[in-house]
Amino acid sequence: MRASVNKVRRATPPLHQPSQGSRDVRKRKPAKHKQRITPYLSRFTVLWVQNNGVAFDTRGFRARVFNGRRLVGSASFDPYGTVRFNGIRTPTNAVLRLELLDEAGRVFRTRVVPADLTAFVVIG
Q1: How far is it, in rounded angstroms, from Cα 18 to Cα 14?
Q2: HSE toward the beta carbon, residue 11, CA cutoff 13 A
Q3: pLDDT tens readout for residues 21-79
Q4: Nearest-angstrom CA–CA distance, 77 and 64
Q5: Between residues 1 and 73, which one has the greater pLDDT?
Q6: Per-residue buried b or exposed e for 14-50, using 16+ beta carbons within 10 Å of the residue's own CB
Q7: CA torsion sign, 87 to 113 to 54 to 108?
Q8: How far apart are CA 120 and CA 110, in angstroms?
Q9: Which one has a higher pLDDT value, 45 or 8?
Q10: H-assigned helices in 4-120
């Protein structure tokens, strides 16, 4: 007589055997990143206006910005009282000293600019 053989079905091992210290490979939702708020003015800008708010005619004037004794930037004013420092990103991260120079290169005004600004207005 022939003995009956019972076939035992064996379970197949999982594709990824979780072990201690392994990562969970299931897909996760991407982490939500906080949107960085960027300022409208990406470079430090200075406006030079009269007491009534009207811009001076600043043809030939220049401005220099110092961080301590180190010169950070220098740029020329446009005719409408505006100067933009391309090398200074905003918001600024340090207290700056601003010097306004006339056509002859003499210091005409000096102002201290606080940190965390995108623009600064010199009145008078």
Answers
A1: 9
A2: 3
A3: 555 556 666 667 777 777 788 899 999 999 999 999 999 999 999 999 999 999 999 99
A4: 11
A5: 73
A6: eeeeeeeeeeeeeeeeeeeeeeeeeeeeebbbbbbee
A7: negative
A8: 13
A9: 45
A10: none
Say if CB 76 and CB 68 are below 8 A apart.
no
Per-residue pLDDT at 2: 58
Q: What does R_g of the chain's alpha carbons equal in angstroms? A: 33
In the predicted structure, residue 18 carries a pLDDT above the cut 70: no
* Residue labelled with tokens 């110092």: 66
- What gap in Å lies between CA 74 and CA 62, rounded to an integer? 7
User: 109-114: long-range contacts (C-beta < 8 A, 24 or more apart)?
Assistant: 113/65
